[in-house]
Amino acid sequence: MASCGGLDNKHPTPHPGTENKEKSTGQASVSGFDDISKQLQQRRDEHLYRSRRVVGSRQGRLLRVNNKELVSFCSNDYLGLAGDERIAAALSEAAQFWGVGSGASHLVCGHTDAHHQLEEELAAFTGRSRALLFSSGYTANLGVINGLTGAGDFVFEDKLNHASLLDGGMLSRATLQRFRHKDYQHLADLLDKAANSEARKLLITDGVFSMDGDRCETAILADLARQHRAWLMVDDAHGIGVLGATGTGSVDPALYNEDDVQILMGTLGKAFGTQGAFVAGSDDLIETLIQEARTFIYTTAMPAAIAAATSASLAIVREETWRREHLNDLIAQFRDGAEAQGLELLPSVTPVQPLLLGDEELALKVAEILELSGFMITAIRPPTVPRGTARLRMTLTAQHTGDDVTALLAALERALNEAGA
């Protein structure tokens, strides 16, 4: 493989005119990229190096990787809609009308009828007054936190929140307070210390924690926020579309209104099978974000065709309740089978089913053995998860079958025995 700027641990080609100087002084070339090369090698040595896979098929139950067909148990396509023909047809038809690009940001000329319709549909789906589209969940979280808080304010976050939430808190210049995972007494203590402050207080949690698969306690958080005059933001990226009879997620509009949970974020690239994200809440919240959220103001709008495709997806999410029912059956089957084998899964009733292995090298080895057996499962290692908690993060989707789950359990047992786990 050709080198690029010394990134392959070899010395880069000297800049013209430096060769003679190096020979005369006897000193090796020193490049700013040498440190990067060492860091990369250290990642390899610690079994923390990340590599991309090149997939040669559409997203679905089966993926073709390196000309080999694998049963995928690592996708966030929970309802199996990313490869749905109806959504693809809606995208194609909309692209013929709207074209491919949106041309500009929402505030210039990029906000189309398709975007506006989707926002109204998402607001109705979540039981909120309005919704606002963002290009990704990451930009939505950064935009909300930095649009609503700043120096002198307080942001309170669960320690296992998604990286985008933690980054948003750090970048906001507010005082960031992280409470122990789902330790709401610890959160209450932190809120008490800020009780006399008139500054804004923003309490943030994942709805479903993406690496552990457990759920936040929405009712407890809403009560704490109310007591301490704080805003509550729920990032429901892994819950929206999946949880609840109609897929409304962790913030059921029949239970929680805009006064209980002021800010709801949901992504469109997981259960909805498309791309992007939205924030839902009151009219004042959405108008404030339009004025203040830099990741909304200064970003080109998602293509209108994607918005139209998501409208088609949203209709399927609402109407095809069998997808959630089947998914819940698979989750129960997997957990029952794992328990029968003595596997200690983390306590999750969501499609995210992590098997904690602890050691990074062991997690990689088990994942490699599983791939040889025809299963694609990702080994999750630090810094995505804390040191000592490397794991296999298995995700179930509505496209899987009961036979797939049975085969996975058998393959897991063989792989763990072969790896010496």
Per DSSP E runs of 2 or more residues, the count of β-strands stands at 13
Structural class: alpha/beta
CATH architecture of the largest domain: 3-Layer(aba) Sandwich
Strand content is: 5-15%
Q: What quaternary form is this?
A: single chain
Count of runs of 4 or more consecutive helical residues = 14
Strand order of the largest sheet: 3-9-8-7-6-4-5
Query: Which fold name is given in CATH as the topology of the largest domain?
Result: Aspartate Aminotransferase, domain 2
Separation of the first and last Cα atoms: 35 Å
Helix content: 25-40%
> Which sheet architecture does the biggest sheet show?
7 strands, mixed
How many domain units?
2
* Overall body shape: globular
What CATH first level of the largest domain would be assigned? Answer: Alpha Beta
Query: CATH-wise, what's the superfamily of the largest domain?
Result: Type I PLP-dependent aspartate aminotransferase-like (Major domain)
- Poorly predicted runs of 5 or more residues: 1-29
User: What is the overall pLDDT average?
Assistant: 92
Rg: 24 Å
Order of helices and strands: HHEEHHEHEHEHEHEEEHHHHEHEEEH
Structure in words:
- The protein has about 425 residues and is α/β, with parallel strands linked by helices.
- It folds into 2 domains: about 120 residues, Aspartate Aminotransferase, domain 1; about 240 residues, 3-Layer(aba) Sandwich (Aspartate Aminotransferase, domain 2).
- The strands form 3 sheets. It has a 7-stranded mixed beta sheet, with helices on both faces. Strands 1-2-11 form a 3-stranded mixed beta sheet.
- The longest helix is centred in the last third of the chain and has 19 residues.
- The protein is globular and about 60 Å long.
- The N terminus is likely disordered.
